[in-house]
Every structure is written in C-alpha cells, then in structure tokens.
Amino acid sequence: xxxxxxxxxxxxxxxxxxxxxxxxxxxxxxxxxxxxxxxxxxxxxxxxxxxxxxxxxxxxxxxxxxxxxxxxxxxxxxxxxxxxxxxxxxxxxxxxxxxxxxxxxxxxxxxxxxxxxxxxxxxxxxxxxxxxxxxxxxxxxxxxxxxxxxxxxxxxxxxxxxxxxxxxxxxxxxxxxxxxxxxxxxxxxxxxxxxxxxxxxxxxxxxxxxxxxxxxxxxxxxxxxxxxxxxxxxxxxxxxxxxxxxxx
Length: 248
Ligand SMILES: O=C(O)CCC(=O)C(=O)O
Fold this sequence. Notes:
This protein has 248 residues and is of the alpha+beta class. Helix content is 25%, strand content 27%. The protein has helices at residues 4-13, 24-48, 51-58, 71-76, 80-89, 117-120; strands at 15-17, 63-64, 94-104, 112-115, 123-124, 129-134, 145-147, 159-162, 171-174, 183-185, 192-196, 201-203, 213-221, 226-227, 238-242, 245-246.
C-alpha cells in the first residue's frame, strides 16, 4: 500500500496521500459511529437547556479518544494501512498516540487554522505521524484539509492562541507569514493523508449545501512517549504494533 514514491514524498514534502485503502462497509461503520458521537454531544447539550452549550456542541470541532467510546474505532485504529505506516515511518514498535473524530457539518463547519500537531503537544521524541482519513469525501467545498509542503523541515514553530468565532474554531495558530505554497488535499472516502506532526496543515469551512465532511484522525508514535513540558507520559499509549506485528 505504501510504495517508494510515497516514502520519498513523505520525507521530502512532509506528506503523501494513499489510494482508496479502506473498504466501503468499514467506512460506513465509522461514519455511523462519528455521527452517533456528534448526535450524543448535541443531545447532551440540549438536555442542559443552555443555548450556548447547544451551539458549542453543534459547532464542536472534534471528539478525542474515540477508541474508548467506540468498539468500532478501537478496531479501526489497527487498520492495515495505519500499521503499515507505523512500520515504515516509526519502526516495529508503535502506539496509538491520539485519535479524533472531526465531523464538519454543512454551514456549521469552520476554518481550523494553520498549525503543526507538534505545536500543540511537543513530545520526546519529537516527530510522530498523523493519518488524516477521509471517512466521507473531503474536498475544498466541504472543509477539506490543506498542507504546506516542506514545512516539516522548519522545526516547531511558535503558536499563538486562536479565540473561536463564527468563522474559526478555537485552538492554536502557527506564527508564520507565507502560505503561498499551500496545497489542497482533496480525498475520496477511504483515502488517507499521512503526514509528519511537524507538517503545517489547516482546513477550511464547510460551505457545501449538504455534504458532511468526516475526518478520522489517528496519530501514532513510538512507545513510552513523554510530553516535553512536563516530562510525563502523554497520549493514548495504546500498543498497536510490536516487533512489526499487530497487537490486538
Ligand atoms: O479535521 C480537520 O479539519 C483538521 C484536523 C487537524 O488538523 C488536527 O486535528 O490536527
């Protein structure tokens, strides 16, 4: 599934995109799980009767640690494409570092500003891989991702706080000036964009009429990773690969 050209592009540009590598029935199961999480979040908020909480849930960027809330996701994080990416870019031993379901509904889905994943959590060792997976088609119109080729060679940039507003999700924004080389990464359901945690990326608003953009975003790292800031273990620390073999 991952060939020499993909590897070269990953090391030179900081990312590559696979062919369609996930079967329709597995994509449908994950899409249903993502919709369930989103719906449950909105229903919980509605139960509080607080209009702000409802708005926040409807516009929530992502749900994390999905593997703890969904047996389907716990299985999905061990998909062969992810294990192969771990073997190629991490080594024979790898853990799930973090995983998120990022559902962008039409109209409510906002911009997520330029950032490096390592800009959120700087780890030791530093670089890990992000496997941004199109669970449904992801494109310019429905809020797909963009990457900045070669930015993985720039080290960890300074990031500043981004306050949420009607156009932009809250979070961190990388401080840099020139995104003129940015590339949109349009994907069919079942394709995976695999990039370094140092690669700058962002996603636009969902301006489509009725296309829900569903991105599932598992990330993988070596076992025993620690957070630089605290010196403490960080992330999901869920073993997926040992001696090159899948851990169940
Ligand atoms: O799903 C998106 O829109 C972007 C997700 C992302 O960049 C991230 O989680 O780091």
